[in-house]
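Protein in question filed below.

…
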Amino acid sequence: MKEARQRAPFYGDRRAPCGFLDTPDFIKEMVTKYDLKPSHEGAESIVCELQGPLMEMSRKYKRMLEELDAKEAAEAKEEAPVK
């Protein structure tokens, strides 16, 4: 899908590049928008049964990235030379 490639990285952070794992709402949006059908038996679970757990995992990962960024920014500030 051309649109999927154009929207990567989906979260705006290259440490979270996956449209399935890092932004599970993206795949659900694409399935709805383009009326996508499962490629094989069980494939629909990614937008059905797994949607909730994937969303939670994605939120936790984004929080971890934000905390890491804040920690690195604080450390850089501490290490900055005083003028």
